[in-house]
Please model this.
Amino acid sequence: MKILHLQSGPLNVNTYFLVNEGTKTAVVIDGGENYKLIKQTEEKYGFKIKAVLLTHAHFDHAGNAKKLQDDGAKIYISEKDAPKLSDGGNLASDFGRHFESFVPDVLFRDGDTLDIEGIEIKVILTPGHTDGSACFIVGNAIFTGDTLFHECVGRTDFKTGSSKDMIASVKRLFALQGDYVVYPGHDEFTTLDYERKHNIFAEYS
Ligand SMILES: [Zn+2]
Model:
């Protein structure tokens, strides 16, 4: 499996492609805001996007998912964040953005292991940024959405956010065994070990 990455939109949202080079298929984590860029990447590398996993329902992460669903990808999101794909919980109206409502294909829960296109993905629910935010573990990589960032954590002042939940979620991530490469929902990559020492929530490690 190969991980590809691109960044889109004014909020520098990270979109990741988990590519199965054998089957020439890919799982996308967070579609971001630039549909054209995703399709160009798909074409350039010659794979087909089969699934899109959303770390949470906010418009800057989920805005492209409906279009990718129309193209044949199955959309995965947590049970808790699914309703936000068709209500104000995606924050599009708060930010003056357009968001096309849709119904996701697969709802996951904490502790689920997903096997998509031969790629094993472990789900950890990490409420705090939204009540249904999720992180995904794939091998030695963890995709943290808007839960854990380089030296920082996600905002907890949006609808369904909770600082108490965020503390518990970050504690849970720091308590994982060993080190992981951390691929966050915005900005630069980091590692779990680095964040255990330098994050603003390092005291919880
Ligand atoms: Zn968000």
Notes: Residues 2-204 form a domain with the Metallo-beta-lactamase; Chain A fold (CATH 3.60.15.10). The first helix runs from residue 35 to 45. DSSP finds five helices and 14 strands in the chain.
